[in-house]
């Protein structure tokens, strides 16, 4: 008599693969309406390629972890994994940038006089709940909360904030998604060239990097701010292009601390603007995103990256409680293998204004001065 042996794990693997494929196909079918021309459809496919690749990369890393899991009988999909999967699928539709002629790129300094408020230290801080989404976390070290999206066990030794970094005064700032931008305001009213995107460096996340550099320069840091476009004219391949940029810069630099500044987005919540009130002013919240080698790519620096993020955030929690959201630890590498102090910092989200993000850079500079002394 033949007996069929059913492997529950294999069944679940194929079921999840089916669900992922179904969601991607459904999302694309919904996005590409029948009445769109072939050229317009092809344009969207070419443009949105990176977000789709992110979905595929995420799926591959998930099944890689499942196949190599020590526990062959059971596995769990964390809330963070589901959030990231939904976020990437949403981005297939949400993230976009129109075709723009090269002459439309604006790189000149703002001619309008900016009156940016200065925020000091030892001030009162409070969260603004109506602008925030409740945060969750899986681990903590001291006052620092961490949302672990990997299968790694985060021991106290891994979390202990003693990064092996000798050069703390030389910092590189760049932007993988240089065109990301914010909600227009009276002082920073601009014309979007995409869905919360602009090629004008005076209004994009690149302007946020400029503010951080300016604040750090006054504190004795040596800061390199690279404003190369990595998501224009094509969004697809942004991380490949930014890796080339960072690698070239580091060939002639002693920087061990590398910040990739982004603007966050959460699915369809365009009004999402995580905010904290510091010294009576509304300031955009920040979030570290730390990559690992859990997705299968070599990344010997991830523990050092995490240690530095914890050290900085622990200082921030003492100076400006609520300035940072929980650290997000992910399977993907995000080019953070390039330095022992590399990280993504999400500065606000689509619902924040540029003013709020510029103020958060002042606070971050104050934090870095104390954390890296």
Structure report:
This protein has about 375 residues and is α/β, with parallel strands linked by helices. The protein has two domains: about 10-95, no CATH class; about 125-370, Aminopeptidase, CATH 3.40.630. It is about 35% helix and about 15% strand. The protein has helices spanning about 10-30, 40-45, 50-65, 80-95, 155-160, 205-215, 240-250, 300-320, 355-370, and strands at about 125, 140, 145-150, 170-175, 220-225, 255-265, 275-280, 280-285, 285-290, 325-330, 340-350. It has an eight-stranded mixed sheet, with helices on one face. Strand 2 and strand 3 (about 145-150) form a beta hairpin. The longest helix has 24 residues, at about 10-30.
Brief digest:
The chain is 36% helix and 14% strand. The chain has helices spanning 8-31, 38-47, 49-67, 79-94, 156-159, 205-217, 238-251, 302-319, 354-371, and strands at residues 125-127, 139-141, 144-148, 170-174, 222-225, 257-264, 275-278, 281-284, 286-290, 327-329, 341-349. It has an eight-stranded mixed beta sheet, covered by helices on one side. Strands 1-7-8 form a three-stranded antiparallel beta sheet.
